[in-house]
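User: tokens in, sequence out, please.
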């Protein structure tokens, strides 16, 4: 958020932030340092006045890009690396759901795998549960299958 504020400030002709920070507030100093801001400090009593020039923000922009990449990777990691999978079939004789469960398991999946909508999985690779709410934990990935039209 601090980086976004700096970008907006620059676009409005502001070339410096000033912040009064208690000398004992190490977490706030870390915020400025982690954001890539160069600071100039002036101590007065137990308050440090920080002057943060907004010119030459190459380091800031690079850190913003790094954080954005980490955030994007984290946001999709659960999709590509789920802790558990629930395959939701539309009816008990849903061969599409059963085939998908078998395919997932035979391709090396070792985490929890539930076949939802089936009280018995009729397979050694998945646990059958009647509804999504009955899974022992919220699934990391839920896949809904629809059998082909007959």
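Assistant: Sequence out:
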């Amino acid at each position: 958020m601090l980086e976004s504020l700096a970008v907006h400030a620059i676009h409005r002709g502001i070339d410096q932030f000033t912040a009064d920070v208690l000398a004992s507030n190490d977490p706030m100093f870390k915020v400025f340092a982690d954001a890539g801001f160069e600071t100039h400090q002036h101590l007065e009593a137990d308050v440090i006045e920080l002057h943060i020039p907004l010119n030459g923000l190459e380091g800031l922009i690079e850190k913003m890009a790094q954080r954005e990449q980490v955030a994007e990777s984290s946001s999709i990691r659960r999709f590509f690396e789920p802790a558990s999978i629930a395959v939701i079939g539309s009816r008990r004789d849903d061969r599409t759901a059963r085939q998908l469960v078998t395919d997932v398991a035979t391709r090396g999946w070792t985490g929890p795998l539930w076949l939802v909508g089936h009280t018995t999985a009729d397979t050694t690779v998945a646990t059958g549960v009647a509804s999504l709410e009955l899974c022992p934990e919220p699934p990391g990935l839920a896949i809904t299958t629809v059998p082909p039209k007959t």
